[in-house]
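Handout, section B. The chain below has 333 residues.
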Amino acid sequence: MLTSVLALGAFQKDDVMSSAKQPAPKSRAMNVLLVGTDNRDTVTQEEKKRYRLGSIGCGCTDTMMLVHIAQDRKRVSVISLPRDSLARIPAYTDRTGRKHKGHLAKINAAYAEGGPGLSMRTVENMTGVKIDRFLAVDFSRFMKTVDELGGLDICTDRRLKDPATALDLPVGTHHLGGGEALQYARSRKVDNLADFGRIQRQQKFLVSFIKEISSDGTLQNPVRLAKLGSVLLPSARTERAFTVKDVLSLARELRNIGLSSLEFATVPIKGYADIKGVGSTITWDEPKSAAVFKAVRAGRSLATAKAALPAGVHTTPGMGEFVPVKGTRLACS
């Protein structure tokens, strides 16, 4: 199992890192690492209490999505990476100058240990996919972004009740404000799928967000888009971070893309493993993951990647099968 992690970390490392600092020109595909952090420093006490946000976080990434934007800008592929995925964190030097050796950890610890740069290096080493841009969204900017849009529609075919986040949504379609949307995106105790169920809801949220900015004219309005970008993007610049100018440029390129051109999946999962010093982790299915990320690097769709997966490899039903779905299937009707 540990050798599987090491093998995943060996994908095209030299090629990835040598080109990591190069911008993503329009003539080729773009890969974005989108993460949601548990930073709640700017959340008010009232919001913490009302939405059950807790008092402190670990500085980790609760959400991690690898977003591949096709070269022709006619397809966007999103692969969710479970936060408890077993990863090998590469050697790094922290802000104090202290050197750290490479070590095993959950993938969400990379951000807490070394920020955006270490998160990107970890994902690049595990996938062989070069990250062009990085976007981290904390609790406060998540809520403010949703509120800036006037809320988002979320639909469910069964009641969603989570005592940990106080989420309680009956069957139907609901127009959620920022705080309620955060409850929805964070909840993982509404079913027996735990983080895999939460990943599905996070993908549905992203579809709802894209549908809203596409239908209300935001994508076609530079002024509104720039305002939204100023709310969403952090004030402090980080390595390979988006700028408002980047957002405007990408929006122009994607302005005609529809929900049917969006595809979502979760990285293929093998199972669980208890690792000394790390805890309970999720292990990727090495052969299937390798095939999926090879397809991404080649610019092929997730559906094509699915068809090319090696046969006879174990997959546990209900916990991370590689099943690509179109954005239209995740959207409210």
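Note. The longest strand covers residues 61-69. Compare this with the example in section A.
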